[in-house]
Specification:
Largest interface: A-B, 18 and 23 residues
Number of domains of chain A: 1
Structural class of chain B: alpha+beta
Number of strands of chain A: 8
Oligomer: heterodimer
Helix content of chain B: 40-55%
Helix content of chain A: 25-40%
Structural class of chain A: alpha/beta
Shape of chain A: globular
Strand content of chain A: 15-25%
Number of helices of chain A: 8
Number of strands of chain B: 16
Largest sheet of chain B: 7 strands, antiparallel
Largest sheet of chain A: 6 strands, mixed
Distance between the termini of chain B: 61 Å
Chain lengths: 214, 671
């Protein structure tokens, strides 16, 4: 791009790219826009629900118990929230949805390195996402990009590449992290569920009232 | 889902830490949870699981490797897993910290360092060592001559009478049989000697023995019970009791007769018959029961209760299966011994229930301490009754005392709700019964329905309360308004649920008895110069007038005033009219079914004309609400919105009433 193109606003391709990234940022960050992406009936239901950072009547550890789920704004808000999480050691998480306990969505998550595994509970029927994070987590300062899926991954997280590719049609694939962030770990089979996590999954699965396709 | 084996019944289930669908057992405490994790495909192969299932079902020692158990224990420390397991992941029982007030909830271990009954220990002697065979050092194959010789020889070291008695017992036919039954029939002399020696060195090792004839093994186990002491863990003792009970259940009369006769054939004593042995076996079983009872009596009271409960619970799979005969006998014996305690506590509960009934009139706070006491005593009662309840459930019979107590508390719970609307106390007692008397099927079913009903009522009340609070909040929002009035010196005009505030005075909403408001547009030579808005409020003692310049303040305040005050005033007006009173508005006299207007005459004085509502029409003009006769233009009356009180209210009721087609103004609110 030359001096004159800078003067006159850049070339068309550059503009289109910038617009695309702008759109991605909007998808990730703009809560109103995330709600606009929903179907009207769900949107109305969500807008009518209370907005808070955590359920005042919640019991149990925030985000780690079905009785104290993380309030988020719809499915995209859910992806945005979980994608912004990182452990206190600075590791973000890959995640996928394993099902729901009534209206509470259940996600399985693992750090990018495969060192820690988690089960998160979220409630997507709220007009905005929580500003709080579960114990041991904070919001990342990284560029916001999706790193998980709102559906079940049969071979989680080894099928991340395929699952990301499947988002091409929805247009969201561009919003995902680069494959380079996880390919090494995938190739080295770094993701092994520890016994405690398997036990947690057993306990959760027995409570699920609906399952993502498994 | 993960394939797993139930740690209690050995049946297949899904999920290591979930409840077993066959026996209902849920792993609790570190030991059971860790074991359950090992008993699933996360840590064991299918063939290993099959093997474990076989071991559990046949009450054999479980061969779960220690390293896997350790691995499982480490996994259980995961914070989220611990949170998901709730109270299940707490350290293992004993249940109560204080012997004087045992309770069902888990508590820290006693400080006197309890030991496993499998901890190696030694004892000085056992009842087996006092058997005539042991005293004289003879075997079941030795003949009379040998016995006599041994008796003589032993007399040199031991008491002569003891030796002679032993000799007599072994040579007298009836007494010999008792001695044989109490000895180790079917065990070779050398093995018998080793076992007896081992019993002194490490009594609990006998539990691991296999391949012994059943009666011999039972006698050894019964002797090992003598080593149980106050430091033993209740769970271990319970396990020991179950092992003994299953072994005793396996006793085979024919096998015993065969073993004894085999040796008698060698020793030259005459063979015995089945019927002779049967009586002796019965006596033996009584002895086994006594041995276990004596062992239990050496435990601290809390451990005794726990051991009994665990033993019965384990043997009956929480009341679902028939227990071995020995367990039933033990429970029957136990029931006799705790009868006094149960009767006393039941009496206490009765008195407390009566006291609660008497105090119910004083309100829920008054009976709360009594309900606390009922719970405490009932829980104490249930601690003693639990083994009996489980046994009764397994046998398919009722425990009458438990039924009586449960229904007595249930009756109180029902009365507290039905007669005094004490939902919380009623629910608390109902849930208590559901917890304590879960082993009584009929009670459990009835109380289950009670809990559902109370929960439903509670939920509906909570919802209704929430909705009422929401409505109240919405109303408060709707009637709250405030604004500053004045250009230079500002006064605040506000209205809220607390009342109307103006110039430092506050008028509670309920105290306002009349309202009026209106506006006057000013103009000069046809050019508007502004509008003056006036609102006036009256109470019984005073009235106040508010002058405003801003239309937004005026209309905002009137909107709020309408909801906050005018609706109530209209209802009161309607009630007054319905009672037959008549109300003055301007020059009109308003009644429920009629209105008195003025017939205006050009000549002569005006006269009053009373017309029903169907004969009049209404309109507004010049700041007044006018009611006029339909048939006579000269007959009309009016009331000024700004000068006469409550004219706006009359306007609303009359117009709305006309729309509804009512003939009496009071019908407007009723409809």
């Amino acid at each position: 791009m030359g001096f004159f193109s800078n003067l006159f606003g850049g070339n068309k391709e550059q503009k289109a790219l910038q617009e695309a990234f702008g759109q991605i940022r909007k998808i990730m960050e703009d809560e109103e826009f995330q709600l606009e992406m929903l179907n009207p009936a769900m949107k109305e239901m969500i807008k009518a629900s209370p907005a808070y950072d955590r359920d005042p009547n919640g019991t149990g550890p925030f985000g780690f118990a079905a009785t104290n789920p993380i309030p988020v704004n719809g499915p995209i808000g859910q992806l945005a929230y979980l994608s912004k999480l990182e452990t206190n050691k600075g590791e973000r998480v890959l995640f996928h949805r394993i099902g729901a306990i009534n209206t509470i969505d259940v996600f399985e998550a693992v750090t990018f390195s495969g060192s820690e595994w988690f089960v998160f509970f979220t409630d997507l029927y709220h007009p905005r996402r929580s500003r709080l994070t579960p114990d041991g987590f904070r919001f990342t300062q990284d560029v916001p990009q999706f790193c998980g899926f709102h559906k079940f991954c049969q071979n989680f997280p080894y099928d991340f590449v395929e699952m990301k590719a499947s988002e091409r049609e929805s247009g969201l694939s561009m919003a995902y992290i680069a494959l380079s962030k996880v390919t090494d770990q995938i190739q080295n089979k770094a993701f092994q569920r520890p016994l405690a996590h398997k036990a947690k999954l057993d306990l959760v699965k027995i409570q699920l009232t609906s399952f993502s396709a498994q | 889902m993960t394939k797993a084996i139930c740690f209690k019944c050995g049946e297949e289930k899904f999920g290591a830490l979930t409840a077993c669908k066959s026996c209902g057992a849920i792993p609790k405490g570190d030991q059971e949870l860790a074991l359950s994790l090992v008993l699933c495909e996360h840590l064991s192969t299918n063939s290993q699981l099959l093997s474990y299932a076989h071991e559990i079902k046949n009450h054999l020692k479980l061969s779960a490797p220690a390293n896997l158990l350790a691995q499982a224990s480490v996994a259980l420390k995961d914070p989220q897993l611990m949170a998901m397991l709730g109270g299940r992941s707490e350290p293992d029982p004993p249940l109560a910290a204080k012997p004087s007030s045992p309770s069902k909830s888990a508590a820290p271990r006693p400080s006197s360092a309890p030991t496993s009954s499998r901890t190696p220990r030694s004892i000085q002697t056992t009842v087996l060592h006092k058997n005539p065979f042991a005293i004289l050092g003879v075997t079941t194959r030795d003949d009379r001559k040998k016995i006599a010789e041994q008796a003589e020889e032993k007399s040199l070291d031991l008491d002569h009478d003891v030796c002679q008695k032993a000799r007599s017992d072994l040579t007298h036919p009836r007494n010999r049989l008792s001695a044989e039954i109490a000895w180790l029939p079917g065990v070779s002399p050398r093995k018998a000697s080793q076992l007896l020696e081992g019993l002194l060195r490490n009594p609990m090792a006998i539990r691991e023995e296999s391949g012994l004839p059943t009666l011999a093994h039972c006698n050894l186990m019964a002797a090992a019970f003598e080593a149980v002491n106050a430091n033993d863990q209740a769970e271990d003792v319970a396990e020991f009791i179950q092992e003994m009970a299953y072994l005793v259940d396996d006793l085979d009369l024919d096998e015993v007769v065969r073993d004894i006769n085999e040796d008698r054939a060698v020793s030259g004593f005459p063979e015995i018959k089945d019927d002779q042995v049967e009586h002796e076996i019965l006596e033996r079983k009584r002895y086994f029961k006594t041995a276990i009872k004596d062992a239990l009596n050496r435990l601290p009271p809390t451990s005794l209760l726990d051991a009994m409960t665990f033993a019965v619970d384990g043997a009956t799979c929480n009341g679902e299966d028939h227990a071995p005969e020995l367990i039933d006998d033990l429970v029957d014996s136990y029931a006799v011994e705790v009868q006094g305690v149960l009767e006393r506590e039941a009496e206490n509960v009765k008195k407390l229930v009566q006291a609660a009934r008497s105090s119910a009139e004083s309100g829920e706070n008054a009976i709360k301490p009594l309900v606390d006491k009922i719970e405490k005593v009932a829980r104490n009662w249930d601690r003693f009754a639990q083994p009996i309840q489980l046994s009764a459930k397994a046998r398919g019979i009722d425990h009458d005392h438990s039924n009586e107590l449960a229904y007595s508390i249930r009756s109180l719970a029902i009365d507290l709700f039905n007669d005094h609307d004490m939902l919380d106390s009623s629910k608390r007692l109902t849930i208590l019964i559901q917890e304590l008397f879960a082993e009584l099927p009929e009670v459990a079913e009835r109380v289950g329905q009670d809990v559902d009903t109370l929960t439903d009522i509670h939920s509906k009340r909570t919802q209704a309360k929430a909705q009422a609070q929401k409505r109240d909040a919405e109303w408060a929002r709707a009637i709250t308004f405030n604004a500053d009035v004045g250009l230079v010196f500002k006064d605040t005009l506000s209205i809220s649920p607390e009342g109307v505030a103006w110039k430092g005075n506050r008028y509670p909403l309920d105290s306002i008895t009349a309202v009026k408001w209106g506006s006057v547009r000013h103009s000069v030579n046809g050019v508007p110069t502004g509008t003056d808005y006036t609102i006036a409020l009256a109470t019984r003692n005073s009235s106040t007038e508010i002058s405003l310049k801003k239309e937004s303040t005026f209309s905002g305040f009137i909107d709020a005033l309408w909801r906050a005050v005018c609706v109530r005033l209209m209802i009161e007006m309607s009630e007054a009219l319905e009672e037959g009173r008549s109300l003055h508005f301007g020059d009109m006299l308003v009644e429920d079914g009629a209105v008195t207007l003025t017939k205006h005459k050009l000549l002569g004085s005006n006269e009053k004309v009373r017309l029903s509502w169907s004969d009049v029409q209404v309109w507004s003009a010049n700041g007044e609400f006018v009611i006029g006769s339909k048939s006579d233009k000269k007959t009309y009356g009016s009331t000024s919105y700004m000068s006469h009180w409550n004219s706006h209210l009359l306007d609303h009721i009359v117009r709305a009433g006309f729309k509804k087609g009512i003939s009496k103004l009071s019908e407007y609110f009723r409809n």
